[in-house]
Every structure is written in structure tokens, then in C-alpha cells.
Amino acid sequence: LVLPGACGALSMEIRASAKVRAFVGEQVSLKCSFTSSAPVTESLTVDWTYRPIFHYQSVPYPTTTGKFKDRISWIGSVAKGDASIAIQSPAISDNGTFICSVKNPPDVYHNIPQTVLIVTERGLSFQLTSAVLLSILVFLPSVVVVVLLLVRMGRKFGVLKEKKKFGYKKSSIEVSDEPERTETASCLGKLRNWCLNCV
């Protein structure tokens, strides 16, 4: 059943964050904004209600009455359509569902947005994620391999430098580090390699 004039009474819209995260002891803001077809007057009312949910973290945190006393502050501005509040020093027991309700006669009927507040202990600012761990596991071994290769190349270069300094010449039985030339394909090359292997 739709009554005449009911359309005008349903023109208020309220918006609030679906979920808000907070840390124990740090102020948190619960944002709520509204639009009304009627001008804002002194008749406007804002009601924030709290519907607690059960929370368990090591031990149960039952809700108690009057726990928000001296911890709720108004940070909104009705002229700007802002009905936000702030909670000082949130605690884990503050976890729950908050409802922002605004009435601005004749706009009194509206949607009912809910904000779920999740309060947790603030952990370490740096958390070792799987991506960071994987990067470390790949990066460190790579650095070690590069360092070892550089050390080995440095030693080899030092040995070659010493040999040149003292006029060292390779003996006929030393195997060359240079790539084998095309002569190895010939009979003479094969014979030479066979002899070196025997010696």
C-alpha cells in the first residue's frame, strides 16, 4: 500500500562505510553522510546506535553498558550532510556493528546503513610476506654465487699475472684453456691429444 505523499518522505539517503578497521588505543572515525530533500533545521536528529557482536581473542570480551562514556566525540557538520563521530582509545571490546540514523523532518524514513568496526592490536609495521620471503631466498643465493665467481676470477687473473711476470711458458704436456682449434679434427690433432692423455 502506497500512501499519497509517501514519496517525499523517502527522499533521505544515508551513507556509511561498511567496514572500518582500527587499532587499540588509536582514535577511529565512523563516517556517516546524508542527503535530505528538506532544508536542515534544528529539528534534525542524529542517532548512533551500537549493536555489539561476540568477540573472542584468547579470552571472551563481553560488552558492558556505558563503555563509550567520555570516549565519543562529534566530528560531523550537519550543514554539510556529515554525521560522523570519533571514538577515542578504541578497545577490542568495541568490536561491533554501528548504525547511523538521521532524521530531518519531514524526511524521517531512510535506509539503514551499518558500519562494522574491527579493532585489533597493532602488530609490527613490517610483516614478512610470502613475496618478501621468496625474494630473499632467491636474491641471497644469487649474491653468494656472484661473489664466489668474482673471487675465483680474481685468483685466476692473479695467477696468470704472476706467470707472465716471471716469463712462465706452458709446457708441451699442459692442456690449453683456449678452445680447441680445428686441427683437432685432423689425424695429427687426434694423435697429439691421445699422447697427452697417455702421459
From TrEMBL:
<dbReference type="InterPro" id="IPR007110">
    <property type="entry name" value="Ig-like_dom"/>
</dbReference>
<keyword id="KW-1015">Disulfide bond</keyword>
<keyword id="KW-1133">Transmembrane helix</keyword>
<keyword id="KW-0812">Transmembrane</keyword>
<keyword id="KW-0393">Immunoglobulin domain</keyword>
<dbReference type="Pfam" id="PF07686">
    <property type="entry name" value="V-set"/>
</dbReference>
<feature type="transmembrane region" description="Helical">
    <location>
        <begin position="131"/>
        <end position="151"/>
    </location>
</feature>
<keyword id="KW-0472">Membrane</keyword>
<dbReference type="InterPro" id="IPR013106">
    <property type="entry name" value="Ig_V-set"/>
</dbReference>
<dbReference type="InterPro" id="IPR013783">
    <property type="entry name" value="Ig-like_fold"/>
</dbReference>
<keyword id="KW-0325">Glycoprotein</keyword>
<dbReference type="GO" id="GO:0005886">
    <property type="term" value="C:plasma membrane"/>
</dbReference>
<keyword id="KW-0732">Signal</keyword>
<dbReference type="InterPro" id="IPR000920">
    <property type="entry name" value="Myelin_P0-rel"/>
</dbReference>
<feature type="domain" description="Ig-like">
    <location>
        <begin position="4"/>
        <end position="125"/>
    </location>
</feature>
<comment type="similarity">
    <text>Belongs to the myelin P0 protein family.</text>
</comment>
<dbReference type="InterPro" id="IPR003599">
    <property type="entry name" value="Ig_sub"/>
</dbReference>
<dbReference type="InterPro" id="IPR036179">
    <property type="entry name" value="Ig-like_dom_sf"/>
</dbReference>
<protein>
    <submittedName>
        <fullName>Myelin protein zero-like 3</fullName>
    </submittedName>
</protein>
